[in-house]
Automatic annotation (TrEMBL):
<dbReference type="GO" id="GO:0000132">
    <property type="term" value="P:establishment of mitotic spindle orientation"/>
</dbReference>
<dbReference type="InterPro" id="IPR045789">
    <property type="entry name" value="Insc_C"/>
</dbReference>
<dbReference type="GO" id="GO:0045176">
    <property type="term" value="P:apical protein localization"/>
</dbReference>
<dbReference type="InterPro" id="IPR039921">
    <property type="entry name" value="Inscuteable"/>
</dbReference>
<dbReference type="InterPro" id="IPR016024">
    <property type="entry name" value="ARM-type_fold"/>
</dbReference>
<feature type="domain" description="Protein inscuteable homologue C-terminal">
    <location>
        <begin position="93"/>
        <end position="545"/>
    </location>
</feature>
<feature type="domain" description="Protein inscuteable homologue LGN-binding">
    <location>
        <begin position="36"/>
        <end position="80"/>
    </location>
</feature>
<dbReference type="GO" id="GO:0008356">
    <property type="term" value="P:asymmetric cell division"/>
</dbReference>
<dbReference type="InterPro" id="IPR031938">
    <property type="entry name" value="INSC_LBD"/>
</dbReference>
<dbReference type="GO" id="GO:0009786">
    <property type="term" value="P:regulation of asymmetric cell division"/>
</dbReference>
<dbReference type="Pfam" id="PF16748">
    <property type="entry name" value="INSC_LBD"/>
</dbReference>
<dbReference type="Pfam" id="PF19427">
    <property type="entry name" value="Insc_C"/>
</dbReference>
<dbReference type="InterPro" id="IPR038205">
    <property type="entry name" value="INSC_LBD_sf"/>
</dbReference>
<dbReference type="InterPro" id="IPR000225">
    <property type="entry name" value="Armadillo"/>
</dbReference>
<protein>
    <submittedName>
        <fullName>INSC protein</fullName>
    </submittedName>
</protein>
<dbReference type="GO" id="GO:0045179">
    <property type="term" value="C:apical cortex"/>
</dbReference>
<dbReference type="InterPro" id="IPR011989">
    <property type="entry name" value="ARM-like"/>
</dbReference>
């Protein structure tokens, strides 16, 4: 996911722009007042949107206090927030309702009738508030949506009446007979609610795509794309809805119009999100999206940000984790142009994030087709990548090193690769990668460090069939490091995949340089079958004495 690749950089940016340093110079009472105004009050105002008084809501039934239509007031209400804010509020409310329905089912199983009733009343309020809020900012909802709104409200009222009768009786037989009716009603409410939310989100996606397609205004188009991107961040289901409604087609139209060049990065970022689902990929193929991406990447008049976001789309659609990339036949036709442009982007990257996106795309392409490795070798890509690793401002995270070592591992199957590694001091880099450790303890970063260790060991194992590479590895003390990774679970973060890779690399180096191992290491880590050595290492317990 591109968002994972960006996360390390976003955290650093967020830390740099918290904007709280200026408080230190203020008197203590003023500091406190500022914090109260910014933190507590603002937080309270945000929470207030999702809070309702259950008793009042039951009485008012979400009806307006005034029976006269006040169009001016309606306009003020609807323009208070942007479409994006309104959709976020709707999604938050929907999440609350979904959570409450799950909790009601759990309490119902335990026959906690009082809790079931109070939660039912709360759900009733949230449903009415959600419908009321949505109808406040939308003006053209469909008849089908209104029907589902009525069905949902009626069922919620029926549900509340059921649970109210339950708390007024203590007869176990009556409660038992009513329980099945309540379960059935709860299931129906969940179905109506799911269908209504689906209709609402489809409706909003259609509106946003219509705005993007019909507007000539850069400002309006930018606002609509921004709202669409926010929707894509809510999960794969929303990406499917957008793709089915023609989102990929509409966004690629923007990428083919020079008047919207300033919106290309934002548009491509949205496309990368949508293409995480199969429907998005099919749409991309239909509109010759690969050709458009190749044109953008090879056009030197575009900004680096545009090239980086185009690389992010390539990385997404060629991800080895996706099972539906086989139909991208047009990618092979444009692969050489794309790979050449991505290597150039890696070489000229001005920041760690740009390098990360470009190298991630290259890494995925090396899985996608073996011909990519031969193209990379012809382009001196290994020399460029190894040089980039020496610049700590460019290759500055385990995520970036993961992409580089993935490319090296996939290229190492080629015989010509060994000489390139020796010339670029690549064995030294692989040795350093065997020491990769997370500085933050973040689970995603820890996983990235494990992948770096594993792939560097795999690359060493593959390259050590060349005596020159094996000799360089032995001289750099790779054997003692591999032994430590095998014997010490904490050094490899208890990773079995790192252990297997290290055992394989150690065995290859032992063949080339048997004098580098002590007899006990040879007897336990090299001589037995690989599976036996693996079991021996995984059963080792560290002594804390």
């Amino acid at each position: 996911d591109c968002s994972l690749w960006r996360s390390a950089h976003k955290n650093r940016i967020n830390m740099a722009f918290k904007g709280e340093d200026h408080l230190d110079s203020l008197p203590l009472p003023v500091q406190r007042m500022h914090l109260i105004q910014v933190d507590s009050v603002q937080r309270w105002m945000e929470d207030l949107k999702l809070m309702t008084d259950c008793e009042c809501m039951c009485i008012l039934q979400s009806k307006p206090i005034s029976i006269e239509k006040d169009e001016q007031n309606e306009l003020i209400l609807s323009s208070q927030y942007s479409t994006c804010d309104n959709l976020q509020l709707l999604l938050k409310r929907a999440w609350i309702i979904s959570t409450e329905l799950t909790r009601i089912a759990q309490k119902l199983e335990k026959n906690r009738w009082q809790r079931v009733h109070s939660m039912t009343v709360r759900v009733n309020c949230h449903v009415r508030s959600m419908i009321n809020e949505y109808n406040t900012f939308t003006r053209n909802s469909s008849e089908e949506m209104h029907q589902f709104e009525k069905l949902l409200i009626d069922k919620c009222s029926e549900f509340t009446a059921f649970t109210e009768r339950c708390i007024q009786t203590e007869d176990e037989q009556i409660l038992k007979s009513m329980k099945s009716c309540i379960n059935e009603t709860l299931t129906t409410i969940a179905q109506y609610f799911g269908q209504l939310i689906e209709l609402v989100l489809t409706h909003e996606a259609q509106n946003l795509l219509r705005q993007i397609e019909l507007s000539d205004s850069v400002y309006v188009t930018e606002s609509a794309i921004s709202s669409l991107f926010s929707l894509t961040q809510e999960g794969a289901h929303l990406c499917r809805i957008i793709a089915k409604e023609g989102g990929v087609v509409v966004l690629f139209k923007i990428c083919r119009q020079d008047c919207f060049r300033c919106l290309y990065p934002q548009t491509l970022r949205t496309l990368a999100s949508i293409c995480c689902v199969e429907e998005g990929m099919h749409q991309l193929e239909k509109v010759d999206g690969i050709l458009c991406l190749a044109d953008i990447l090879t056009d030197n008049t575009h900004s680096e940000a545009t090239h980086a976001e185009a690389a992010a789309v390539i990385a997404q659609i060629t991800s080895p984790h996706l099972t539906f990339t086989q139909h991208l036949s047009s990618f092979l036709e444009n692969m050489e142009e794309i790979v050449t442009a991505l290597v150039k982007l890696c070489q000229e990257a001005s920041s760690g994030e740009v390098f990360l996106l470009a190298s991630a795309a290259l890494a995925n392409i090396t899985f996608f087709d073996t011909m990519a490795c031969e193209i990379l070798l012809q382009l001196n890509a290994m020399k460029i990548l190894l040089a980039a690793c020496s610049d700590k401002h460019i290759v500055d995270t385990p995520y970036s090193r993961d992409q580089v070592v993935t490319i090296l591992a996939n290229m190492s199957v080629l015989d010509q690769c060994a000489s390139e590694i020796i010339q670029g001091n690549g064995v030294q880099l692989l040795m350093e990668m065997l020491f990769e450790r997370s500085s933050s303890g973040n689970s995603a970063e820890v996983a990235a460090c494990e992948r770096v260790q594993q792939k560097s060991a795999v690359t060493l194992a593959r390259l050590s069939r060349d005596p020159e590479v094996a000799d360089a590895a032995v001289k750099l003390s790779c054997i003692p490091r591999l032994i430590k990774l095998c014997r010490s679970p904490t050094e490899r973060n208890n990773s079995d995949s790192v252990l297997v890779a290290c055992l394989a690399a150690l065995r290859r180096l032992a063949v080339m340089s048997p004098d580098g191992l002590e007899d006990s290491d040879f007897q336990q880590l090299v001589k037995p079958r690989l599976v036996d050595s693996f079991l021996l290492c995984t059963n080792m317990e560290e002594s804390f004495v």
